[in-house]
Amino acid sequence: MRTATRTYHQTARAESAEATGRHIVEAFLARLMEHWFDEITLDQVAEDAGVTVQTVVRRFGGKEGLLATAARVMGDQIIAQRTAPPGDIDTLLEKLIGDYERTGDAVIRLLALEPRQPTLKKLLDFGRSEHRKWVSDGFAGSLSHLDPASRQRTIDALVIITDVYTWKLLRRDMARSIRATAETMKNLIHATLTQSVKAQNNNEIE
User: Fold this and answer.
1) Angle between helices 2-34 and 42-49 (to 10 degrees)
2) Distance between CA 183 and CA 66 in Å, rounded?
3) Which of 27, 64, 142, 194 could form a disulfide with 49 if both were Cys (CB 3.0 to 4.6 A apart)?
4) CA–CA separation, 152 vs 187, rounded Å?
5) If residue 47 lies in a helix (H) or strand (E), which one and from where to where?
6) Any idea of the CA torsion for 33, 95, 130, 111, to the nearest 10 degrees?
7) pLDDT at residue 181 in the model
8) Counting beta carbons within 10 angstroms of the beta carbon of residue 9, is it exposed (0 to 12), middle (13 to 18) or buried (19 or more)?
9) Which one, of 77, 67, 80, 79, lies nearest residue 25 by Cα?
10) pTM of the model
11) Per-domain residue ranges of the chain
12) What's the rounded Cα separation, in Å, for the pair 96 and 164?
């Protein structure tokens, strides 16, 4: 009986600690969506999460440790948000732009800080590699007919077309609607895929 009680209390404490960690990360991510990374303080995060700064430090070791954990959580959220059937360009763009509408401004701020905040590089490099993987997987059918060199050039072009900076140019700088943004990206994607096949066919003829 005593062993069962002890096990129960240990499980309850572990669940409570996990919930506390989750609240802290959520509070940090909420701040990150609205503010510059270098302006966010542990005091603010602790207050938002309803804990002490000591709890945040004890759990994550400081702001960099908190960023590392939050990056993994954010990465999982982005992957889930962007999931779409390969080859379905309309759905792929709908999911992508939906993600950018939620996280795009925050990512742009992080990219702007990258030269001054080395701790951000690992997070942003992970994002770059995941975006390239998203392109490779999402357009796998069209890419499979290309030779290695053509495939790499085409992926490069698709990465640029669907990049967060392209979204920013259309949505923020040019003030285009979500629908117009999707149509522009879609037209560029179709043009790139068509040109890639045409260029490869011409090379084979030569």
Assistant:
1) 120
2) 38
3) 27
4) 20
5) helix 42-49
6) -30
7) 98
8) exposed
9) 67
10) 0.81
11) 1-72, 83-206
12) 9
| Residue 197 buriedness (CB in 10 A; 0-12 / 13-18 / 19+) | middle
Tokens of 85: 């059937």
Mind giving me the DSSP string for 103-144?
Answer: HHHHHHHHHHHTTT-TTHHHHHHHHHHHHHHHHHHHTHHHHT
pLDDT digit string (tens) for 97-115? 999 999 999 999 999 999 8
**Tokens 């954010």 — which residue?**
74
Q: How far is CA 31 from CA 8, 25, 47, 67, 95, in A?
A: 35, 10, 12, 12, 23
Two tokens, residue 141: 């059918």
Q: Distances from the Cα of 169 to the Cαs of 161, 163, 184, in angstroms?
A: 11, 10, 11
CATH superfamily entry for domain 1-72: Tetracycline Repressor, domain 2 (1.10.357.10)
